[in-house]
Each structure stands twice: as C-alpha cells, then as structure tokens.
User: What shape does this take?
Amino acid sequence: MQVHSFLHSDTETYTHILADTQQQVCALIDPVLDFDAKSGHTSSISVDEVIDFVREQGWELLYIIETHAHADHLSAAMHVKEALGGQLVIGQHITEVQKTFKKIFNFDTSFRTDASQFDILTNDGDTLKVGDILITVMHVPGHTQADTAYIAADEEKTVVFVGDTLFAPDVGTARCDFPGGDAKTLYQSIQKLLALPDDTIIYLCHDYPSAGRKHCPTTTVAAQKLGNIHVKDGINEAEFVQMRERRDATLEMPRLIIPAVQVNIDAGHLPDPEANGVRYLKVPLNAL
Assistant: This one.
C-alpha cells in the first residue's frame, strides 16, 4: 500500500491517492477543482498534477471517492473521471443532503435527489477492493448527514481517510452548524474512529496548522486520543457538544459554501450552459 497526498493550498484541502503498487491500481480521494470566487473562473491546474502523477505511475484508477459533499471547495470528480475513468463513490446518505439543499437552492424538478449522479453509494460496513487493499466503509455523520470514512488495510498497515470529522490534534474537529449537522452525532462518530487501533494512520481532508507548524496530511489515532484539543481522552459527550455549539456560533460560513455545495451535491457537475453558452450558479440571499 502506498498513499500520496497533494495539498490544494488555496483551500488547504488534501487529495489522496491510495495505491496497490503491485497490481498497479489506485483510488483517488477528494479531488479539488480550482475556483476563483472573485471572477467565477474554474481551472483544473491543481488536480491535473494529481492526474499526471497517476499516469506517470502507470496505475489504473478504479475509484474516485468523495468523503462527503464539501462546503469549502468544488469537486474535480468529473474532470478526473473524464481523464482517468473510475467509478465515483459517496456515502448513500448523500440523498439527505441533496434534499436539504435542493430546497435551499430552489432547484427545479430536474435535479435528482436519489444520488443517481454517482456510480456507487456506500453504506456502513460495505467494502471495496483496490488490488489487495480492502476498504471498509464507516458512516461518520455529524458534520453533515453523509460524512463517510474509508478504512484501508492490507498485510502491512491500516489507514483511514476521515474527511471532515477530525483535524490535526492542534486544530480539533469539524463544525456541525450546517443544515443537517449535529454535534452529539459527530462526537459519537469520532468515538468510532478513535476505537480503531492506536497505530492507525489518519489521513486528513484538511489541515489548518497553528503558528509555527507546517501542513501535514496525517496523524494517528493515538495522537488524537492523547492531544486533540476537542476530543482527547477525558472529554465527554456533554463537554464536547457544549464546546462545539458555542464555537460554531462564532464561525462565519466558508467562503465557497454557496458555489461548492450546489456543484458537489450534483457529483461535481457544473450547471449546464444557458442559451448564451455561459454556466451560472445560484446565490440564495439570507438563506444560510
């Protein structure tokens, strides 16, 4: 098993490649599309580096995995799929997120809320194979209803891609104030992750390092239990919920939540061009 991580500096998001190098197959987790909110311009410059790396290795891409419908970046899943193939994977509870945000964006009846835009919908306990690597699905709601972690194991080691549940120990945990989020549910999800063996390597979706620390894509279960500022050992559910809800009440919405969510619940598809050939995103006023 090899994991290669690519930092998208603008959104501080990690895209990970999970590979069985013997069988020359891989999966790609949480690809990012460049988006300039000031101009509305999209670009694939960053994700093309990831695509080029896969091609250079000669690996076949089996899966493009989204840990959830991100609110801080636009998914590059469609660009990756066009370039490398692969099936697009997301947790089946994405249907709940689609229904919630269909109302917020007032999408018409053509917008599908059955998640048929995706290729594979996973449920807790499901498995996928990347060569000799077994991926086990863990539903970890709280940040959103659909957040899903993917535990990858072979004979050498076990790693887990946690999406927006846990961050580095000095950063803490994900917010829970988006529609469908819940702090108590997130605490319970995190306890499932922290029940994994202490030496399990955690691959983060984001890192927002404190002063003096460089970005790092990984931590461990042991490090989280010892030092996560929000959920280390000794912090109970009531304490976590109180902290999380108070903290969330002070946070601004992510700067890209409006463009990101409406694209990402549609599997990374950009809106169809209108009669003038231009694509348009919607901005709901006073709705978030």
Notes: The mean pLDDT is 97. The first helix runs from residue 45 to 57. The chain is about 25% helix and 25% strand. Helices lie at 45-57, 77-84, 94-105, 183-194, 221-227, 237-248, 257-264.
